[in-house]
Design goal:
The protein is mainly alpha-helical. The strands form four sheets. A two-stranded antiparallel sheet has the order 1-4. Strands 2-3 form a two-stranded antiparallel sheet. A hairpin with a 1-residue loop joins strand 6 and strand 7. The chain is globular and about 55 Å long. The two termini are about 25 Å apart.
């Protein structure tokens, strides 16, 4: 799933993709993610840079390699075809609405890497957990398959058909409720405020435990049960604010939300139409761990059988 979703984001945002970036991202990926969680913790506690941090060397090595590759792409693209319409071209042409300034080279590198890295890890995990859940609930796999074969019996699934794949999206959303790709969010208060009867001083780091919110009994009925009908249109309209947070909420909602939902819906429908997914053992129980994204600790072994 990681490799597949990376190919999508790379080909969408960097026309034709880039093999060197792909190989560098996938190399030592697990070590990088293990170190990244430490970087987040150290950042939240504002630890001085001189304090040793697990995984720092591996992270710096891969960051340096990625920044070098993207930097060369930016430099080589200065005289690129003006009709190019990928993300890099759009970022290069963007101007600040007040000053009219373009992004610096370093800002361009930062933005491209953020989109590439964040844009495939999260979708990959959403699909991984969804395939596990439908392996546990074959009745929902059957309901999705009936819908998919009725709407798109063959050929590529197009973006305009996504809205018709209602059951597929319900399954996907329920999967992201039970196993949110980003299990927690952090914010820093910009002014003194009150929250839940507590005084919160300006500059305080606040953690939003998305995983806990999505399974909280005060807002969900039978919260640990896999039930995609929660996201039927009639039910979804009664959700309270911040009840469902796979993409965050408020002014800092994930900017890639619409893209991610279209991508994940097409991906899931294509996979289900092509193959069945089953547990390799009836007692298999994946252990979710937080590595910035919510990943299964020992991977997700599933039996895949192509449909005849």
């Amino acid at each position: 799933m990681m490799q597949a979703t990376y190919e999508v984001i790379a080909r969408t945002m960097l026309i034709g993709g880039d093999k060197e970036i792909s190989e560098t991202i996938l190399k030592e990926d697990s070590d990088y993610r293990a170190g990244f969680i430490w970087a987040v913790v150290y950042g939240l506690f504002r630890a001085p840079g001189w304090i040793p941090r697990p995984g720092r060397t591996a992270m710096r090595r891969r960051d340096k390699a990625l920044r070098s590759i993207v930097g060369r792409m930016i430099d080589n693209g200065q005289d690129a075809n003006p009709s190019t319409n990928d993300l890099l071209a759009r970022l290069r042409d963007a101007r600040h609405p007040e000053t009219g300034q373009r992004m610096s080279r370093e800002q361009l590198i930062d933005n491209v890497l953020t989109f590439l890295l964040a844009g495939h890890h999260t979708t990959a995990m959403a699909l991984t957990w969804t395939l596990y859940l439908i392996a546990c609930a074959p009745e929902w796999e059957a309901r999705m398959l009936e819908e998919i074969e009725r709407i798109v019996p063959e050929g590529p699934i197009r973006a305009e058909q996504v809205s018709e794949l209602v059951v597929v999206q319900q399954v996907l959303k329920e999967s992201m409720r039970l196993f949110p790709p980003v299990p927690s969010l952090s914010r820093v208060t910009t002014q003194d405020t009150h929250l839940g009867g507590h005084k919160i001083a300006r500059g305080t780091a606040v953690n939003i435990p998305v995983y806990a919110v999505h399974r909280h009994r005060s807002v969900w009925q039978n919260p640990d049960l896999f039930d995609p009908t929660r996201f039927a249109k009639a039910n979804e309209s009664h959700f309270v604010s911040c009840q469902f947070l796979p993409f965050g909420a408020g002014p800092r909602t994930c900017s890639g939300m619409a893209f991610a939902m279209i991508e994940a819906t097409i991906f899931l429908a294509t996979l289900v139409r092509a193959a069945r997914f089953e547990l390799v053992a009836e007692d298999f129980l994946p252990i979710p761990i937080s590595r910035v994204v919510l990943a299964p600790r020992d991977g997700m072994p599933l039996k895949v059988t192509l449909r005849g």
